[in-house]
Amino acid sequence: MSSHRRPRRPNAALRLGSVALVLLLAAAAALAWNTYEQLRGMRQESERVRAQLMADSLSQRIGHALDIGIPLEGLVGVEALFNQRLGAHAEIQSIALLQGPGKVLWFVERERSAKATAGTVADAPITVRGEPRGTVRLALQETGAGPFARSAAILLLPTVLLLAALAFLAARFSEAQGVKLRNHAVRLAMRAIASGRYDRSIVLPHRRGFDLRAQQLGHAVRGVHETLTRVRRLISSLRQTEPQAQRREYLDMLLAEAQGTHRFADHGLTQVRVVAAEAQSFWTSLLMTLAAMALLGLAASASSAVADIAPLHFALLPAAFIVAATVAAWITQGRRWPVLSVLFSACAGLAALALVLASGALTGYNPLHLLPVVALWCGGFAGAALAACMTVEQVPRRQDFKHAMPRWPKAAIGAWVGATVWLGPALGSVAFTALGGLYGGLALTLPLLCASFLLLRWNEPRSPWRHRVGGRNLPQPTAAARTGLRAWGATACTAAASGLLMVLGWVAATAIPHGLSEAAVASALGVGLLGGLLDPLRRRRHTGAALGVAATLNALALALPGAGAWHIAALSVAALLTAYLLGHAVTSTQRTRHTTASATLLGAAIGALLAGGIAAAGLPTTSLMLVATLAVGASWWAQPRPQPWQPTRKDNDAA
Fold first, then answer.
1. Of 228, 254, 273, which residue constitutes the final position of a domain?
2. pTM for this one?
3. Do residues 310 and 263 share a domain?
4. Which of 642, 434, 620 is nearest to 517 (CA)?
5. 455, part of any domain
C-alpha cells in the first residue's frame, strides 16, 4: 500500500525573496566590479606614490648614518628598523638594502602564500655628497581583485541579505493579508454551508474587485435566509387566517420540512469578520522593533566612529534595551491602556528620537552617557509595542468575530526576536555606513510611518486593534498544555537563549572594525532565525540531531580558534543552526504555555545579562553561541513529547 504525500504548493513569498536575493547579488557584483575598474588606475598610482615615499624615508635615515662616516656594511640596527616598518605598515611585503647590482646586504620579508604575486616596487637611492652608495628597495603587497572583493563582500553581503529578507517578509505579510486570507474566508463559508449553518455570513473587511468569492457565498447565504424569512411570514399569515387545526398543523409541518436540519437566524444574519490578526501583529511588531533597534544601532555606529567604546560597554547596550522593554511591557499590561494609543505613542517617541539624531543635536555628548539613555528610550517603546501586539494576536474569539490563523505561532514575539537579533542592528549599521547620520536618521522614520499608516487603516469598528492591553484578554491554556515546572523551564530557556543571541547579533552586526567573520555570523544568525520562525522542523528527532551538530560545531570553533576560511565557515554554520533552533523553539513553546510579554522579556533580559557577564570575564564571543545552544537544548528536552492520539494541525492555505 503506497502512501501519497500531499504536494507542497509553491510559496509566492519565497519566490519573491529568492528573486530579490538573486537580483540584489547581481546588482552588487556589477556595482563592485564597475567600481574596481574605474578605480584601478587611481589605486595603482596611489600605491606607487606611497611606496616611493616610504622607500625615500628609509633611504634618508640610512643616508644620515653614512654622512657621519659609518660604512654601509658596518651599519647596526638596519634589520630592526626594517622589522619596525613592517609592523607599522601592514601593506609592506618586503624591504631590502642593496649595494650595487645584485648584492643584497639586508632583506626582511613578510610571510606570504606561494600563490601570492608581487605588488608595487619602489627603489630609493642612497647618496652621500652626490655619490651613490646603495639602494633601498620596498615592495608592497598585491592589492588586486581579491582584497577588493573581500572588502566589498563585507559591506555588500549584509546589505543584500537584509534587503532580501525584508522583501521576503513583506511578501509573506502581503500574501497572508491577501490571497491566503481570502482562501481562509471562502473555506469557512463553504464549511458553514456544508454543515447547514445559514445563520451567519462571512465578511472580509477589505474586499478586492478581482476576487469576490467570499462576497458571493455571503450573498447566497443571505438569499437562502431571505427566502426562508418570506416562507415564515407567509405560513404565519396563513396560520392566522386558517380556522382548522389540522391545516394549521400541516402548515407547521411544511415550515419544519423547509428548515430541515439546517440552522437559520431568527431575526438577522450574524456577520463574522475574518481578520489576519496574527499577520498584522507580526508586521506591526516587526516594524516597531526594527525602527527601535535600528536607531540604537545608528547611534552606536555614529559614536564608535568618533570615540573608542569598550567592548563590555558596547555589549551591555542590548541588555539595557531588553531591561527597559521588560519594565515598559509590565507597566503597559498593568495600566490596561488602549492598544492603538500605545502604538501611536511609541511611533511618535521613536520618530522624535530619529529626528534628534538626524539633526546632530546629541553630537557633543559623551557616548558613555548618551548610548545607555538611547537604549533605555528605544527599549521602553519597543517593549510597550510588543505588549500591545501580543494582546491583538491573543484576543478571544467572539461569536461575530474570527481570526484567520496563519502558520505563525508566537507571531509578535517572533518578529521582536528577529528584529533584535539581526534585522535592527544590521539596518542601523547599513543606514549609517551608506547614508550617514543625517539621512540615516531620516530613513529610519520610514518603518514608523508605514506602521502608523497600517494602524490607521486597521482602526475600524469591531477591530481587534480596539482592545485594551492587559492579561484579561489572554486565552487560557488548553488541557493539553503542560503547566508544570518543565513547561516554565522550556519557556525560560528559550527566552534566555534569545537574549544571548541578541547580544551576539548586536556585536556581530555593529562591530568596529567590521570583518568578514562578523558579517558572515550576523547574516547566518538572521537567515537561520527567520527560517526557524517561518518554517520550523516537524519531527522531534530531526531537532535533536540539529542540536547535536550545532553544539559540536560551536565547541570546535571555541576550542580551535583561528582566522582561516574553515573557521569562518564553521562559525557561520554554527550560527545558522543555533538561530534556526531558537526560531523553532520560539514557535514550539506556544503548545506549552501562553506567557505575557513582560515574562518573556524578563527571560531575555536574564540571557542578555548573562552575555554581559561572559563578555566581562574576557571569554570570546563564540562562547555565547555555545551557551545559547545549550539553553535551546534544555528547552527542547523540557518540551512535551507528542502523543500519537493528538492530531496535527495543517493550515497550509490558512491566512
1. 273
2. 0.76
3. no
4. 620
5. yes
CATH number at residue 628: 1.20.1250.20
Q: What is the mean pLDDT of residues 646-653?
A: 44
3-state secondary structure of 341: helix
User: Do the Cβ atoms of 295 and 351 come closer than 8 Å?
Assistant: no
Q: If pLDDT is split at 50, 70 and 90, which confidence band does 632 have?
A: confident
Give the DSSP H or E segment for 260: none
Q: State which residues form the domain around 245.
A: 190-273
Whether 649 contacts 349, CB under 8 Å: no
DSSP code string of 435-489: HHHHHHHHHTTHHHHHHHHHHHHH--TT-GGGSB-SGGGSPPPPTTS--SHHHHH
**One domain for residues 219 and 288:** no
pLDDT digits (tens, 9 = 90+) for 60-74: 888 888 887 777 777
Do 123 and 222 lie in a common domain? no
Residue 16 lies in a domain: no
Residue 132, strand partner residues: 127
Torsion from C-alpha of 523, 378, 297, 350, nearest 10 degrees: 100
Same structural domain for residues 552 and 615? yes
Does residue 612 fall inside a structural domain? Answer: yes
CA separation for the pair 174, 161 (Å, rounded): 20
> Do the bridges between strand 131-141 and strand 104-109 make them parallel or antiparallel, or are there none, so unpaired?
unpaired
Decide: helix, strand or coil at residue 402: strand
- At 369, list the grid cell: 552617557
Count the neighbouring beta carbons within 10 Å of the beta carbon of residue 225.
Answer: 18
Distance CA 79, CA 393 (A): 71
Same domain, 555 and 507: yes
Three-state SS for 639?
coil
Q: Cell 536607531 appears where?
A: 295
Alpha-carbon distance values, 291 to 4, 171, 313 (Å) = 46, 19, 22
Beta carbons of 622 and 554 less than 8 angstroms apart:
yes
Q: Which whole-number Å values give the CA distances from 485 to 435, 616, 635, 638, in the listed order?
A: 49, 31, 12, 9
pLDDT at 14: 65
Q: Given its phi and psi angles, is residue 462 left (phi above 0), alpha (psi -120 to 50 degrees) or beta? A: left
Q: How many domains does the chain have?
A: 3
Residue where a domain stops, chosen among 273, 303, 324: 273
224 & 291 share domain: no
DSSP, collapsed to helix, strand or coil, labels residue 652 as: coil
Round to whole Å and give the CA distance between 105 and 134: 10
Residue-by-residue DSSP string for 568-610: HHHHHHHHHHHHHHHHHHHHHGGGT----HHHHHHHHHHHHHH
Phi, psi dihedral angles at 107 (to 5 degrees)? -150, 125
Give the number of residues written for the chain: 655
Q: Is 109:138 a contact under the CB 8 Å cutoff?
A: no
Tell me which residue has cell 571569554: 619
Q: In what order do the strands lie in the sheet with 131-141?
A: 104-109, 92-98, 131-141, 118-128
In a domain, 417, yes or no: yes
**Domain check: are 446 and 415 in the same one?**
yes
- Taking alpha carbons only, the member of 521, 492, 501, 503 closest to residue 602 is 492
| 254-265 average pLDDT score | 72
Residues 69 and 201 grouped into a single domain = no
Query: Does residue 534 carry a pLDDT above 50?
Result: yes
How many whole angstroms separate alpha carbon 562 and alpha carbon 552?
A: 17
How many angstroms separate the CA atoms of 366 and 564, rounded?
37
Provide the b/e sequence for 179-201 (b: ≥16 CB within 10 Å): ebbbbbbbbbbeebbeeebbbbb
pLDDT at site 642? 53
